[in-house]
Amino acid sequence: MPLRTNSRSETKINRSENVKDDERRKASVVKISSDLFEASLKCPTKCWLRFTGEPTAANAYAEWAQTQNESYRAAAAKRFIADEPANECAVAPVVENPKAGRWRVAVDVLAQTPEPEARSNRCSAAQTSTSEISPNLTSSTTNDQARPNWISESRLHAVERLPSEGRGKPAQFVPIHFIFRNKLTKDDKLVLAFDAFVFSEMVRRPVSLGKIIHGDDHLTLKVKTSSLAGEVRKGIEKVFALLSCPSPPDLVLNRHCAECEFQSRCRKIAVEKDELSLLAGMSVKERQKVRSKGIFTVTQLSYTFRPRRRPKRRRDKLEKYHHSLKALAIREKKIHIVGRPEFKIEGTPVYLDVEGLPDRDFYYLIGVRIGNTDSAVQHSLWADTIEDEGKIWREFLAILDAVQKPVLIHYGSYETTFLKEMQERHGGLLDDSVAAKAIGSATNLVSIMFSKIYFPTFSNGLKENARHLGFDWSVASASGTQTIVWRETWSNRREPSERQKLISYNADDCAALEVVTRGILGLHSAPSGPQHGAVERDVVDTATLKGEHPYGFKRNTFFFPELDAINKAAYWDYQRDRVFVKSNAGLRRRSSRASSPKQVLAPNKTIECPRPRNCPKCTSANFFKHTTYTKTLFDLKFMRHGIKRWITRYRFHRYQCQTCRTVFQPEETCWGKGKFGSEIMAYALYLNIELRVPQVHVASNLNRLLGFHLDAAMIGSFKAGAAENYKGAYNSLVNRLCSGRLLHADETKINVKDNDGFVWVLANMEEVAYVYSETREGSLLQTMLKDFTGVLVTDFYAAYDAIQCPQQKCLIHLIRDLNDDLLKCPYDEELKRIAQEFTALLKPMVETISRYGLKSRFLRKHLAAVNRFYREIAAMPQQSEIAMKLKDRLEKNRDKLFTFLSFDGVPWNNNNAEHAVKGFAALRQIIGGVTTDKGLRDYLILLSLCETCKYMGVDFLDFLRSGKKDIHAFAESRQGPRRGLGYNR
Which CATH number, 1.10.10, 3.30.70, 3.90.320, 1.10.540, labels domain 22-244? Predict the structure, then answer.
């Protein structure tokens, strides 16, 4: 008998469980406000701290900026509605349904996206009725299904309601932002676009336009918010992922820290953790690069610095900035220098520091300190208003003109911009004046210090470096952002104390600049050897640091020079040539044989040249023998299974015509000025170019086996002569490649006489050409291919994109990059999903190619799968940065990834060019950076012919011996099994 159940009790239990589920769901919903969204644009940590309610610390600028925003917003809102009729204005709280309101403008409007459950319920309706919903809402419904537990909220400063333009057309809404700053950033536009997004979701209408009213003049900037909707949507997803995580994001200091209310809190934690972001000059990519190597702190980074000898070719170039050396200076608390700072003052030093309001492009205080130490004179030129700016500029020029040989010194680019803008705004400079010369040769200390002087400070700022040298400011907390607050306070209250703070701060900056300048001059005058006294304690010259070479031969450094001389006497070459030869008879005999005269080679054949019939100039038969001569020609003789040395001696006479008095010789003797024949030249080039044997070893091999007396210079002359001989054939190859229907292109690096260059590789199925360029810029290739109409197969280097022709990007490059990303981020599900979809798309294409070849009539069927793939990845929500980069890369190159599906004979990879690059890479190893520009071009001409012979299946040595210039004609003339040598070798 079944048990009876109480339906009422079950209903109550189910209802209570549903209520609890609703309460848990509502508690887990993340509310993303405009403040949080704006904070995330500045710093993820700031967004997290605001969300969790972290107490703020005192930051004068942050508090002042907030007060300015609130007061400007209130005043601007009153001004905005002042000219509007009262019945057309709405002030918070605004009616719940803005679409049903009759107001024209509204102030302080609260907008909020629907609850997650409501959004998911209307998802199907949103997809079917796109005419009633904004594009933002339509495209975001898929994301809402994936992550429904968030809502967006914003309190719009103002909303303007534009009446309907006609019957059936709804009214339009324009969100408005009030910002007190005169200069706007992209973040300001994104925050406005966020408000438009939220309002669009609430009213279910497109909001494609917004306005920002900003600055002292209340200027209006119109913003197309629809174009920023994609960035806003991605930003919301990032914020949701950030706030949904129970742990805070990785702490990273950035430029916004100076304006943030959490500055002191984050700085303290970063110092405790020894965060890499403490190094102010280190970019995000550079931090990620060292983090991938397992380096997470400044101290760890300091141990990676390795002193290296600077090559001669780079001594005139700017030294690279080493973050690891900066970290080493911090760890050892010593100044580290690279080389000798080239800085000296020949005249009277004039230290310049300027204070201004960057938001208004207004410079109100010019600080000038003339001279050094206690005898220095300080000038403070103050401007009450913008109109006074020209006055203090002219006073500054007058001060410079009164100084004898002034040397203007400043710190950073702010003063550089000041000098340039003042000349454009106010002029007043005479070309030959003292002030003009001083300004024209002004010295920026940062450029002197960069990559050469590393202070043990986290940044390269004036305050940190001057404090390290013992200087203190009168107001310890003073900063650049603090001066903005002081100046605005003075403008409002006109209190003398605020003005005096600014003047004192500026004077301290000038004095600090003098201290840093004297410190740099002290480094310049310090001895280059081991340091003495105070210099030994505080300064380290990286040239004195010992490099670590655990796997190389160690060069000993002896304390006494006599020990060094004794050690050199034990070297192997010295003992064998100077010591052992005096006591070892065998070594003495071998040494004497090595210095014996060269053996004279006997000729294999002697040829007597016959007497000519007539004079080649006047055809007269009346001539007589003038002189007897001999010519010995050294060559090789190729036999069926080897080669042998073959020396031919020619005996001939010179004749003189009695009619025209011309001196001539038989035509059979026109062999040129050289003493080597064509066969030995061909064989030497074969060894050097195809077998990659260095020229020195080619000469040694021929000398050892065949008894010649060759040197590397002679092999080089063979190469130069052959390159000149085949230059026409090379040009023909390049022209054929640039006018064909298919071209593969790639590039690689080469060192030419201590200078970097690049070699471009052009190839198709049968031909290869190498072109040298001094830079990697694509201008050379773009000029060569300006009339190219075929399909260009390349990698993803941006220089190829400017060539106007159908292009196929190498999918092998893309697959390798994708695989590297997967290995670096094996737990990134979004990346793995895109990679799986791409693999599933590409695999059937490769199977079709394996079965039918590169025929478009079989490959076109995959175009539908390509379109489907792009629709799917467009709908995928991405939050991880690496997945977003991959998606952007796929979308950017959509028209160039699958070109091979629409053309016959177009490969989906760039293996033809890469195979040709391998040929040059092998030759590059034997060149070794010792060739010249002309020598490299000669190499490339012959290598182009050699690789083309391989691609066409003919033997390079046979082609050289044939004497022909056209490889195609030579290939057609070859018969039997000899054709095909070399391609599979």
Answer: 3.90.320
